[in-house]
Amino acid sequence: MATSPSSSTQQARQAIADRLREMLRDSGLTARELARQAGWNETKCSRLIHGRTPPSDNDIRAWCTICGVPEEIPNLIAASRSAETSYLEWRRVQRSMKRMQDLGLSLFEDNHLYRFYSSNLVPWPLQTPSYMRAIMRRFADFHQADVPDIEAGVEARVARRRFLDDGTRRCAMLIEESVLRNRIFGDDVQGEQLHHLLTGMRQPNLSLGVIPLAGRRVQKLTETFHIYGDATVSIELVSAIITITQPRDIALYVKCFNDLASSAVYGDKAKALITAAIGALEQA
């Protein structure tokens, strides 16, 4: 069952409150003593550790410093800032494909390194318009949504490629070999997409790695995730998008991406897998 945005936000707030309480307990201080050192009213401490009041950045800095764990400041500030926006249900935006494509546009504008992993689809930088259109139609059908602006959504996604026209930006993509063998959108769409991979992967600031079905050294994931710079991870679930901004969690996804990359093949070996998939499709 999907979690509602409000309950998810409350859970995120409570997790922060619980961590503040743990710090206070581990420090050996009382709430009264912490409040005195911070120059607060004691009731403010109570509101913070019970999750009734979200802490400000300055509250977190003061709390961590007084409790003797200043190294926790970046993670807690990131968690607090993302509590309201970390979970976005598809149903809140699914009536407009254009709006969905515009979600997080600032992530592309503000970062110069994009890292994408997908176990089920070709990532958007190398998608053909027909492949994009098929994805959006299937999404609308699955969610039983009336989406009148699919063509506007396709145009918006194609326009997003302008970020990769900037030579200062780099994009690294990893896909499972099974993505090459998928036929969920029909042979014509898949065939065009596979041929496009062979030409699109030549772009100098774009890297495509394919993780072979045989000989892999890391576990296949079911979730698709995108890493923008070193500050944000976006995870696509069936019901929602989850945005992660905590440094330690981002570090885990970077490590995961690097582990997956170590099992991928590139260049001529990747082309051979794509060519083999084209051959299998044409012979079917």
Automatic annotation (TrEMBL):
GO-annotated molecular function: DNA binding
Pfam annotation, one family: HTH_31
Record SUPFAM superfamilies: lambda repressor-like DNA-binding domains (SSF47413)
Coiled coil: none
Annotated HTH cro/C1-type domain residues: 19-74
Name the UniProt record assigns to this protein: Helix-turn-helix domain-containing protein
Organism of provenance: Microbispora cellulosiformans
